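pasting for the record
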Amino acid sequence: MSQRYSTAGMYLCYAVETTAGTRPTTGYTVIPEVKTMPSFNPAPDAIDSTTLMETEYRTYVEGLKNLGGALEYGANLTADLITAWETCNSAHDTAAADGKATWFAVVHPKLDDAVFFEGDPSPLGLNEASVGAMAETTLYITPNSAPKWETKPTLATASQTVLGGN
């Protein structure tokens, strides 16, 4: 039986293409303070293929998977997060102006591969607040490609420090 893992140590990171159309493999920057991540395992649409001859059950063929639009990442609202997210958005805007994409990766420290996707980050807003609660926000990334498992990325030096040298 394979070893089972907790979610401890998972992180979200990004890098912009240096060559348009080529996913970067190095230089990824960790986005700090992320607490929750969306599912990358949606059920495929079920397209009804039932004929009039069926008398009891409908039949289906598998359709497309739907990530549901912008992906939501819950995060603690800190000065470090605000700076990191503004830097991410600025890097994205600069890359987009040059016809280059921004790639995001969801990394688990004990797996060899990570999930990658191209995406557009949205500017940071301010979530609701209540008495006695943590100041939190939601980071939105609109995916522009299907997620895919590939060898996990190499982080930029500053991001390795954020993760304690990993």
